[in-house]
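Exam revision sheet. Question 4 asks you to relate a sequence to its structure. Input first:
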Amino acid sequence: MTDEHRKIKLLIKSGYPLIYLVTWEEDRVLHMLSEVSSELKKDLYIWSLTDGMIKGDKPLASTRTPVGALELIQSKDRGIFVLRDFHHYIEEPFITRKLRDLVMEFRNCPRTVLIISPVMKIPVELEKDITVIDIKLPRMDKMNEILSHITDGFSCQGIEISIPHGEGREEFLKSLLGFTGREAEQVLSKIAVMEGRISIEDMDLILREKEQLIRKAGFLEFYSKVESFEHIGGLNQLKLWLKKRALAFTKRAREFGLPEPKGLLLAGVPGCGKSLCAKSIAREWKKPLLHFELGRVLGGLVGESERNMRSALKIAEGVSPAILWIDEIEKAFSGISDGGDSGVTSRLLGTLLTWMEEHENPVFVVATANDINILPEELMRRFDEIFFVDLPFQREREEIFRIHLSKRHRDPRDFNLELLATNTDGFSGAEIEQIIISSLYDTLSDEVPFNTDLILKNTKEIIPLSVSMKEKIDNLREIAMNRFRMASVEPSLPVFSELDLRGIFRKD
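Answer key, structure tokens:
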């Protein structure tokens, strides 16, 4: 018996009149309700617009319409009544009033109405009378049952099954999270037919199927091409922090007594690698990356934006373990104090804060921000750590030049990287990249050599943000120096060669 089974049974026994079950898995929930009705020895009635009200296998007359269904419920003394896809009708004034009348009658004659729908719509008049239960998608134990059932069936047909026990099987099962039971069965069957096997190597195929789920929802964007830490210059302290948490979502970490990390805020100077780092975490941790653009959840109807926000976060949890990337988060919540949007921004923030505090499934939030002055303090407290990404120092600039020259098929050893880094003090990584690109265009169009001198010439033609926005960036760096952890730490001690050390420790 699942927790949801126990909870629904308890609510029905306690006389709760209206229960709203939010789920895509109608078949699984109907099977569970059939078991509950049998245990409680109550008749089960199931309604849909196409079939009307059905008891057992018997359709009941004059119940095809929502009003007909509610009138039948009103005529019965006892029973459990299930209304499928009733969200289409619940906000109609007559239906809302009829449900309120039923709630008052149920006090004297206990009956229970359960609404099953993938969408939650509750009119304000019924908010105090409805109990909402989110039916979770299958978790690890259920996915393990599904996997065993499918692999046993295909094994009998001669299909090769190659899924080891232990951590390998755990990772494979985690890749299936986010699917309904039926979707998981379909994906595994598709892999077996297409590949002639079901193997641990097929996790990439599962991830591609999962991408379709995210695209259909519309609120999140699935990033299949992510960067590597090798493509990020510097940020040594941030990289170290992330590498130490690479096993954060494993069973081994739970058994070791470690909690799952919740989130990371990357604040700092524009163009210094915050977004690039967010993308690289997915590759380092081998988890799917979801880009959440908060503007997509905004809707024109009252309550629609909050509903969309909850849907997006629920999808992210369904795909877990995953990385949820919110870029330039300060733009979404910058006007929260003026109330110019009738409180929508404030309610969206409240929804996000509550979810970050209470969500159960492993979703790691990576938020980036250019202007930390306008971020609400209650949001900043929700992150495990806040790193400040500053302008790169000398050695980091050398590394950034090396990375961008290599990406464009040039040998960094042919360039004076130390001289280039010295002449780009105050430049961001993005500005250094543009210098390389501009120099390559010069070489292509003017047929001049692509060398250190050409790059230095283009360096002098660019005014970096550290100059054009000096006051703002200086203020940003000053605030961060005393409040946040630095993503990079420049070595303060000189680097000695072996001969230097011999000289320092020479015995006279």
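Marking note for examiners. The longest strand covers residues 363-369.
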